[in-house]
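Summary for the steering committee. One of the milestones for this cycle was to obtain a three-dimensional model of the protein with protoporphyrin IX containing FE bound, which we needed before selecting residues for the alanine scan. The sequence and ligand used are listed below.
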Amino acid sequence: MPFLKSTLSRKNLMALTGLFLCFFLVIHLLGNLQLLLAADKASVSFNNYSTLLSGNIFIKIIAYILYFSIIAHAVDALVITVKNRKTAAKYAYDERKHASKWYSRNMGILGTVLLIFLVIHFKDFWYVYKFGALPLDKNGNKNLYVIVVNAFHSWWYVCIYVVSMFALGFHLLHGFKSAVRTLGLYHPRYARYVEIFGVVYSYTLTIGFSFIPVYVYITQYIK
Ligand code: HEM
């Protein structure tokens, strides 16, 4: 598509899909906080919630937009990185390391870690929920709760999550600010507030998403 050929429109699409994914993450974290409830309450509430989401046509449409956003965001990132590498090779000096943070220069590596995380995440939770033969809970809902909690009973699995969540945090630290700037969504006067919001957002998501597997792991010994 000629529209997607320009780097500017690719950057705009990347910013838009990135901000949509940022919004999804807040909703996803809020839903997952139910895993912190006492086991009997958590399983009823989490399984009800999953059943409710999977049966709702509005949520299904949002989910397809979500899958499209993940793929478009990753493909655009790859195309822009390859283009930038080709351009950078023409210049003898690259002074970026003096002017930017390490995570801003390594968005591709952080994104790749997240992509690997997502493959594991989809295989173990999403695929199992949609296509696996799950046991049912006492209300007749698919017992996704037991799958998630059992996964977080092994220390190495929790480590994969925590490391991935830190990659996510650094990715967001640069990505949120960059997306808002690309789309020109703020007046320069408010740049400082956008930056502060981005930092608070990134820290909250990293700590929130990391805390859940660590908490589930630890509480298996306190029963
Ligand atoms: C404590 C951390 C997390 C837990 C416990 C968790 C749990 C889950 C579960 C149980 C599902 C399957 C249920 C469903 O499809 O509705 C799911 C789906 C998903 N998760 Fe996570 N998740 C976590 C972190 C993340 C992170 C950090 C990301 C993104 C970087 C993410 C992205 C997704 C996506 C895209 C789906 C598919 C949603 C859909 O089909 O509507 N998750 N997650």
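Key point for the committee: The mean pLDDT is 92.
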